[in-house]
Amino acid sequence: MSKRIAGPEIERLIQLLAKVPGLGPRSARRAALHLIKKKEQLLSPLAAAMGEAAEKVRICSTCGNVDTADPCMICTDPRRDAATIIVVEDVSDLWALERAAAMNVRYHVLGGTLSPLDGIGPDQLNIRSLIDRVAGGEVKEVIIAVNATVEGQTTAHYLTDQLSGFDIKVTRLAHGVPVGGELDYLDEGTLAAALRSRTAF
């Protein structure tokens, strides 16, 4: 049994920080200590920002993004191409694509992938609202941008089947050799996907 090294408030801070992805118990202790040492510059403003976020953050009822407005800023931006929707598993994927700034389109967040073993079926994901958006008639292309996992590919096939009755183009992200990648360092699955997805020069 480990000895307590600080008061219950500090222990609670460490326990909560340890639940943040990428932070284990040791990293959480270091982060908590750093925050406490910089109480005025970091801890107090962070606590205020988190309180404000907890009060104001909403899930967009249209696409599933997180924002302080519903519908979110992406869904209400008139400069975005409303005819194209990129479907992603999670908000973090949406943010990653936005950082790439490759396309100025709309998004749809599923909230995960189909995983029957974990009890996650179509009803547990944000699929019905995607179908409703496509049925509205404005959408011309759906780009399925899910992870290249077994669950991701199962979800992609399911979505393709569900969207097959609409007069739209359904595409997916190319899988294969990353920019700057060397063939010798890639796994067999990535190489096989790259060969299957080959394009003309």
Radius of gyration using CA atoms only = 21 Å
Topology as H/E string?
HHHEEHEHEHEHEH
**Main beta sheet, described?**
4 strands, parallel
Distance between the termini: 63 Å
Number of strands: 6
What sort of overall outline do the alpha carbons produce when their principal axes are compared? globular
Description:
Helix content is 43%, strand content 12%. By secondary structure, the chain is an alpha/beta fold. The protein has a domain at 80-176: Dna Topoisomerase Vi A Subunit, Chain: A, domain 2 (3-Layer(aba) Sandwich). The strands form two sheets. The chain has a four-stranded parallel sheet. It has a two-stranded antiparallel sheet with strand order 1-2. The mean pLDDT is 91. InterPro entries: DNA_Rcmb_RecR, Rcmb_RecR, Rcmb_RecR_Znf, TOPRIM_dom, TOPRIM_RecR. Keywords: DNA damage, DNA recombination, DNA repair, Metal-binding, Zinc, Zinc-finger. This is Recombination protein RecR.
Which features characterize this protein?
single chain, 8 helices, Recombination protein RecR, Dna Topoisomerase Vi A Subunit, Chain: A, domain 2, 201 residues, two-stranded antiparallel sheet, metal-binding, alpha/beta, zinc
